[in-house]
Amino acid sequence: KEMLEKYRDLFTLRWEGVIGDTCAPSQAQWEELLTNCSAFLFYGMERFMSHVLLNWLVAMNIPKCRLVILLDLVRSQQSYQRIRNSDIHKSCRRIALERPTETAMLLSLTGAGSVIATQWYTTLQENAERLETLLENLLSFGKTTGQAVHILQK
């Protein structure tokens, strides 16, 4: 919340979304957010694709969404239990589609212009630092997506 507030005036007064851990967005909310945004940020637990329905995502068309930032792959005991219970009902192929590279490909095929995603499990603190670096470079310094990612890699 602090970072979104900090960079709000540099980018837009219209930050929209779901913040907090009180409820999970419905599939309709995910669709609304992805189809009506120019940039989409997911900062959450486990795999982004574990939160959305695959059949729903592949049928979407999101050409207005020029940038998707997925700061996911954070694990807690509670999130691990949730994902484990959910994965029991999925095929190996379906679970494979939830990996970072496959997720980026699916989002690209639905029309997202660029996808920035974590590739391995991390901590909330590390993702917070990544988000701060990305927002600072994209919004404060006006760097391109590629330049901002390159800075993250250093």
Automatic annotation (TrEMBL):
It comes from the Eukaryota. GO terms for biological process: axoneme assembly; cilium movement involved in cell motility. This is CFA46 protein. The lineage of its organism: Eukaryota, Metazoa, Chordata, Craniata, Vertebrata. The gene is Cfap46.
